[in-house]
Amino acid sequence: MSADVEPFEVDVEEGTVADLRERLERTRWPDQLPDAGWDYGMERETLREMCEYWRTEYDFAGYERRMNRFDQYTTTVDGQRIHFYHVESPEPGSRPLLLSHGWPGSVVEFHDVLEPLTDPAAHGGDPEEAVDVVAPSLPGYGFSGPTTDRGWDIPRIADAFAELMARLGYEDFLAQGGDWGSLITVNLGASYPDRVEAIHTNMLSVQPSALGVEDPMSLLDEEGRETVREVRSFQGAETGYQEIQSTKPQTLAYGLTDSPAGLAGWILEKFQTWADGGLEAFDRDRLLDNLTTYWVTETINASTRLYYETDTEEALPSSVDVPTGHARYPVEIYKTPRPWADRVYDIVHWAEFEEGGHFAAMEVPELFVDDLREWMRVV
Q1: Phi/psi at 112 (nearest 5 deg)?
Q2: Does pLDDT of 3 surpass 90?
């Protein structure tokens, strides 16, 4: 391992915990219309209960233990601190796998899949399917943040992650991602086809202009058209956060950085809306581990800046020639019809599931791991 890589452990200062608890206790709660439920956004009593648990019962020492359970490190790439898990398999000759998360998640998303992926024999799997996992915190997120200069968009992050893998001694590797991590992953496949052996995503996007036809809808059957209608419905009703974060993230950040209840409401509403089963799909401590990571590092502002910095259409490659796997979970927020995907990607593995949503590694870790193993058998 390079001398530029240093071991790292999460250590939350007592003063930070005391300050968080005091702020939660002094939260000024907004009104909520009778019987409004989730119609207007984050439901007040759900958030109040979660914040009270965060203030009075959540174990911050337990948070440190969970975060420090796996080997983690920091290094500086392109002037930016990068925090990452590097979990090496006990099996000789294991292939390296880069896992990339998105927003409003963090490396916490991967806690339940790191051991099964790196040590399948201990989890009822085939030892020959073991991988070494590198799971970085995106620049600006958690212990990789905040970013300190402009221009940290998705292509730049992909370049930084390619450098990180080289620094760890991995010239060739596999890559997987969801949300922003999916876009990082396809950029790696497009930009480094000589190093990236194959990619896998649980969210897949294409540029309509890259499909080579005047009317992309003409390529679709009724099922494909319904998929497009679902995505358009999401874009019309659920992307207000995107518009704010891609235009005025600094204005939003004052409230979210100052108020832990505000931060929790902004993030947990997405876990409710984007997960199969809503907040009930997750262990409460795991949700708060993710929130705590944003709070103690003060990186909600830097994390949302990624939306401002990235032009998604420009960041989407027009073609990706490395072998590509894709898992479609029913409550995923963005879905691409297979005929469109086939025109941009070299699809070698395509799986559709009956449960799971946007945070698949957290929601359905066993399905997530099994699907990655199926993909790796193909590639």
Answers
A1: -85, -5
A2: no
- Domain extent listing, the chain: 6-378
| pLDDT score at 359 | 98
Q: Is the pLDDT of residue 219 over 80?
A: yes
Amino acid at 212: G
| Exposure letters 129-148 (e unless 16+ CB within 10 A, then b) | bbbbbbbbbbbbbbbbbbbe
Active site residue 358: yes
- What lies within 8 Å, CB to CB, of 378 at 6+ separation is 323, 325, 348, 349
Q: Catalytic: which of 58, 141, 192, 307?
A: 307
Distance CA 352, CA 325 (A): 11
Q: Report whether pLDDT(229) > 90.
A: yes
Q: Which residues pair with 198 in a beta bridge?
A: 174
What average pLDDT is seen over the chain?
A: 97
| H/E stretch holding 343 | helix 338-344
- Among 192, 326, 358, 371, the one annotated catalytic: 358
Q: How many CA atoms lie within 13 Å of 277's alpha carbon, on the beta-carbon side?
A: 13
pLDDT digits (tens, 9 = 90+) for 16-54: 999 999 999 999 999 999 999 999 999 999 999 999 999
Q: May I ask the CATH class of domain 6-378?
A: alpha beta
CA separation for the pair 21, 265 (Å, rounded): 16
φ/ψ region of 92 (left if φ > 0, alpha if ψ in -120 to 50, else beta) reads: beta
Clarify whether 179 is annotated catalytic.
Answer: yes
pTM value is 0.97
56-82: b (≥16 Cβ within 10 Å) or e: eebebeebeebbeebebbbbebeebbb
326 catalytic per annotation = no
* 336-362 average pLDDT score: 98
Q: What is the pLDDT of residues 187-215, one digit of tens each?
A: 999 999 999 999 999 999 998 889 999 99
Q: Where are the alpha helices (DSSP H) in 57-179?
A: 60-67, 114-118, 154-167
* Active-site choice (119, 153, 179, 276): 179
| DSSP annotation string for 15-26 | HHHHHHHHHHHT
